[in-house]
Amino acid sequence: MRQLRVVVSAADYDEAVAFYGEALGLPARDAFAGDGGARVVILDAGRATLEIANPAQVAMIDAVEVGRPVSPHLRLAFEVDDAEGSTRTLVAAGAELIAAPARTPWNSLNADRGTLPFALVDVFGEAALTGNPLGVVDLTAWEEPVDEEWLREVARELRQSETTFVLPGRKGAVRALRSFTAGGVEVTGAGHNALGAWWWLLENGRVERPAPGAGPLVQWIGGRELPVLVREDGALALRQAPARLGAVVQDVAGPTEAVGLAPADIGARPAPRVVDTGAAHLIVT
Question: Is the pLDDT score of 106 beyond 70?
């Protein structure tokens, strides 16, 4: 073995080079350009080692350095002369500080930087970029209280019809879900916002898939517990809250105009009215 090389795929190449090259201080050894705008730079990171740790060791490192589980499957560790100074420089360059530098039992000073897992999921589609898009952000590793305004800001930034935030479970629920539109309005019903989130969680092993016959998973959404049915073929189904009948709507001129219809196009029986199974909808026939 002559060299260990880690390849990072960066959508913003110049930003990544500035972060690792300038902020972290890794000198460039080689740089190449190819057809179609292909670019790569090889940064010298000093001596390379491959560290293999079992779950107990990973848990111990997290407990010492952060105080809670944060490590992903793979992580990068850089040995520097000034951990505190390098941490300040990286945070100023855009890194998220997970924990301040801490002295370890083996007399090293370590600081952790992490990322927030999120995905864009296409629900009710047979191929990518079809169906009903959804943003999903996994916050289950966070132990600090979640600021609601920050959730709204993230949803506005992702600009999906809805963004679902996955939170630690409560009571008998495996996970708690909160969803917001791009306009910052919270959606409490269990529709594509919940279905897409659960598909992503199960598909990526973030929630263990129940054994056949084990019964449904339970989610906390909209202030209530609702089941998530995982069928043996892998398909998912949701059970919504019981329907609550709201007011009968007499004047349908506004709603019909919004969808390009005339009031005469709406049937009289059953009369248009609001029905709520977690999110209120005006039902017309």
Answer: no
Residue 100 sits in the same domain as residue 150:
no
Q: How many angstroms separate the CA atoms of 271 and 285, rounded?
A: 8
Q: Mean pLDDT across the stretch 16-28?
A: 87
What is the percentage of the chain residues whose pLDDT exceeds 90?
A: 27
The CA–CA distances, whole Å, from 145 to 64, 97, 139, 148, 197 equal 22, 16, 10, 9, 21
91 in Cβ contact with 97 (< 8 Å)? yes
CA gap 119, 136 in Å, rounded: 5
What domain range is 80 assigned to?
13-105
Which residues, other chains included, contact 285 with Cβ-Cβ below 8 Å and sequence gap of 6+? 266, 267, 270, 272
pLDDT (average), residues 183-203: 93
Q: Who contacts 273 (Cβ-Cβ below 8 Å, separation ≥6)?
A: 245, 246, 247, 248, 249, 282, 283
Query: Is there a single domain that holds both residue 80 and residue 138?
Result: no
pLDDT band at 198 (very low <50, low <70, confident <90, very high): very high
Mean pLDDT of 108-117: 64
Domain count, the chain: 3
Cβ neighbour number for residue 231 with a 10 Å cutoff = 9
User: What does pTM read for this prediction?
Assistant: 0.58
